[in-house]
Amino acid sequence: MKITVFFVLLLSYVLCACTSKDSSGTNPFKLTIIQMNDIYEISESNNGEGGLARVAYYIDSVKKESENVLVFHAGDFLNPSLIGTLKDSTGAKINGKQMVEVMNLLSLDAVAFGNHEFDLNEDVLQTRLNEMTFPMVSGNVAHVLDGNREGFKQNGKAISENLSWKFPNGTDTLVVGLGSVTLPYTQKDWITYGDVIKVANEQNVQLQATCDLVLFLTHVSRQEDKKLAATLSNVPLILGGHDHYHYIDTVGNTYVAKADANAKTLWRHDLVLNESTKEWVVNSTLIKMDMGVAQKESVAQVVAKWENFARENTGREGFSISTILFKSDKKMDATESVIRSEQTLVGDWMTAAMLWSTGNGDVALLNSGSIRYDDELPSRVSEADVLKALPFGGGLVVTEITGKELKEILAVGFSDNAGTGGYFQLGKVKLSGSDWMIGETKMIDSKVYKVVVTSYLSSGKEKGLSVLADYIWYAPAKVKNGLLENDMRKILIAYSRSDEFVNSRVFSE
Ligand SMILES: [Zn+2]
After folding, report:
1. Topology annotation, domain 320-504
2. pLDDT digits 0-9 by tens, 315-333
3. Which one of 104, 226, 369, 480 is most buried, by most CB atoms within 10 A?
């Protein structure tokens, strides 16, 4: 209901913008921009939304009716995805290769770096960059090679700090320039970032000198985009990424737009030049990529090839990725910013499965870094979602820990590690005021509790938790008695089919 209201508001907003400013009437120059951002999956969702074959069809249809069209992607596409976690016949991880292959078919005019592009290792990212037939653009991201700051390259050619295009406008030529910046989120010793605001302003000065229209393609937070918009003069539109929900902000004379993740929506921006005032009028329309939009056959075939690969590859390991496990009426948030700092329903579900595997465990601790979905789960959750959410797989282990020691471990995993992958999603244990509770009972220092964790946590490799390597760990009861295979993904799937899960009614109102 809320969404319907929002759509109506947007529509009226668009109509106002177009009737109040566009008054020239004599064939003004018009530029159409198709904007997408934060797309991790080449396929449509379980709900029939998104999918790059649909995006390709829409781009083609706009190009048929409009003369001047530019297609932009505001970053985040190489990771995470289910297919990206699989390995090919040579044993090499797919790591976004499927995404590049499909994006190469979209006639993209410019793509920004998102933080997730840098999840890949340095050499894998370089391979992906070389496979791209579309231009990346970045003003503030640079590669550190042998201690020197250099731009990233695609096939040996430096990636441009900004891009521009020339369009005929009557007897004249009109130049459109594009700057781009990315947030310094992923820190690695082979990447360096220039300051977002400073670099964008330098780019703007440079571009304004030679272009008739300057736009920005950004991958920063909503707040940072607003700050940026306030400093960039004469830029009518910033096309953003990073947030996963659609919106348009207005800051002075600048609009900032982001579409929904995984191409559930795209923005279509029609920019019309008012020849008398030299102002650009922006009409933005949110386009839903749902079953109402056809799929481009040639792209759908490539997507299907990868879907078959995923089905066969995971089938060999005993998974059936298109099988739906359950339907949720509630929001299942697995975005990194949320799951690494607060308890979520996704954490409840996973830790309940961990406890279930032990039969009678007291506490489950799950390091949130093992969950790599960075999006909301769809309302129909499939085995594919489980594989995507837990790309590392791995087993579970159990041990006995005293209340006193458990409190120290929780102080690290629940408090010190907040905001990082070492933050705990908790099962059956929670903080109530200043007391740790197990179920409805206060934790007792001298009592021994049965604790189940991921094998990764038990290795002591998590930040501040090396002490966990000192315990003696054993397999959960249902694994020991042969009921379950010790793989977190298989345990979660089996739990989601169990009577205990169905009776818990966690996901239904
Ligand atoms: Zn991002």
Report:
1. 5'-nucleotidase;  domain 2 (3.90.780)
2. 999 999 999 999 998 999 9
3. 369
